Structures are given as C-alpha cells and as structure tokens.
From TrEMBL:
Pfam families: ADH_N (PF08240)
EC numbers on record: 1.1.1.1
Position of the signal peptide: none
Family annotation (Gene3D superfamilies): Medium-chain alcohol dehydrogenases, catalytic domain, NAD(P)-binding Rossmann-like Domain
Keyword check for Glycoprotein: no
InterPro entries, alphabetized: ADH-like_N, ADH_Zn_CS, ADH_Zn_typ-2, ER, GroES-like_sf, NAD(P)-bd_dom_sf
Protein family membership: Belongs to the zinc-containing alcohol dehydrogenase family.
Cofactor(s) needed by this chain: Zn(2+)
Keyword Calcium attached: no
Listed name of the protein: alcohol dehydrogenase
Protein keywords: Metal-binding, Oxidoreductase, Zinc
Amino acid sequence: MKAMVLSQTAPLNERPDPLQCVEMATPEPAENELLIQVAACGVCHTELDEIEGRLTPPRLPVVLGHEVVGRVVECGANVTRFASGDRVGVGWIHHSSGTADENLSPQFAATGCDVNGGYAQFMTVPEDYAVAIPDSLSDTQAAPLMCAGAIGYRALRLTGLRDGEPLGLMGFGGSGHLVLPTAKHLYPNSPVYVFTRDESVQQFACELAADWAGGVDAVPPQPLQAIIDTTPAWKPVVESMKKLRPGGRLVINAIRKEDADKSELLKLSYHEHLWMEREIKSVANLTHRDIAEFLPLAAEIPLRPEVTLYPLEQANEALRNLRRGQIKGANVLAVS
Ligand SMILES: [Zn+2]
C-alpha cells in the first residue's frame, strides 16, 4: 500500500517535505481488529507537533494521521460488532484501558503516533475503538470530526458551562469552527465570542453564528464564564484569563504549546488573572465514549465541516498550509 511516513523529526522550515511517500506492506488485522481501507484522513495540528519533535512518536518511521474514515475490508477472527463494508472512523485513541478515564491511562495508545495511522491506504484498529459513521456525513466531512470535533466536544463538557452563560473560543481553526455550532446546540442561550488574530477568520466565525468576534487581545462585550483555548501559543492563555468572570474556567485544548512566545507568561498577574477562583484546566486525549457520543450529535446538529481536500501524496503541502494558517476550516486528505 501507499503511505506517507515520518522518518525524522525536524522543524518544518528546515525540512519543508517532512513526509515521504513510500510503498509498504498492507497491515494484517489481529483477531480483535478491523482492516480499514482509508477513504479520508484529516490533517491535525498534532501532526506538526510530531513532525517538529514536540511530541515524538516512540518509533520511526511512523504513518501519521488520526482523523480517519474508511471502510472495513477484513475482520479478525474474534470481531463481532462490524463486518466488511461497514463505514467506520478512528480517532486519536487507538486503544486503551477501556475504563471511564482511559484517556489518562498509561495503556493509552495514540493513532498515528504510537501505532500507524491514516496517512495511508489501509490501517488496522481494534473493533472496540472503531466508531460507526452516521450515514448523513460524507467521508471527508466526517474525518475532521474524529479529532477536532470530538475533542472540542470533550473540551466543551469540561468547561462546566450551563446554558445561558457566556462562552469564549480562543483560536478558530479545525476545532473551533466545529465547537461553535456544537456549543450553540448544547447551550442555545449562551452567547459565544470568538478571538482570533485573522480578520477574515473573525468574519468566518460570525458567518457561523458567533455572537461577536475580535482579536486575541480584544475586550469582549461581557466577561466570560468559560473559554476554550485551541491555539499553540501562550499569549492567548494570559489574554483568556483577563476575560474570565470570577469563578470562570479556561480549558486548554492543545496537546503541546510551542515555545516561541513563552515569555508572555511573565505577564500573568496573580491578582488580575487568577484571583477570584479563576481556573485553568487542560484536555488530554479522548475516550472512546467521547467519539461515540459526539458523532451522532454531529449528525443531529448537523455539523458540516468546511474542508479543503488534498490527495494523499500532497500531505506535505497540507501540513505547510496548516502551519501558515492558510486554511478556513479543516484540511483533509482524500485517500480513496
Ligand atoms: Zn488531532
């Protein structure tokens, strides 16, 4: 099969084509696994973290990609829940402990990091970690929901928001533009304010029903009960804390923060930003349940992610465009 593999980590500007297109053996499913023919795979910021070594895969080369949608083409001997031809998705959780907090378990294995992922024509996954894709979602629309959408759903739950309380979204990329309609569906009376540096993205947020949009350091119409930060930078953390109500919560939904503007943290003032029981919480990984709950919700809303398509072989270009921020919505590899 054809696959785009990462064999060496380096900054993207030093190595602008980080992935190589190779021919490799099609994997064979173990007795509890499905072999999936990949139809589409979303391109996530986490791939940049892996490529640049902030989140180093334990073994190289590795096939990246954890927003996978495809069709089952072969089942291991003990598989009972799926059959050949079923359309399934695989997210960041490839397998784990199966407990309620499996996202935090030492057994957690990440798709496209600890095991080969979806930047390839085929991949395998345990059946317990595959999710049926609702019929109303196309392959390429469902792909970004597997990570950006599902983890956005988890982040939203971790805010502890109650309907009517004001919510902020710091950053508006692959995850933010899916969280906004999800928030509007779950909390119909909560105003949602979006913070992002790019004015065209601010406008895009308002087209998607944000109640207001402004720059990272803009002052929103009212203090916020909760903010979800999906940016890779530190300034947005300090700026978010300024915008919270007393008792408000910042939920950071980013696997790694980059170091470029880490000095911004020195501007964090205890009195201005933390005092009055303001809190910061991170989101780590996903449980199978998060994805299994979120996909039917996405179909019901209905969520229709804005996607830009690339062939598998152009994954490097998709990654460079993601780095430059030159996308509206999500980048997706159309594999087959
Ligand atoms: Zn992701």
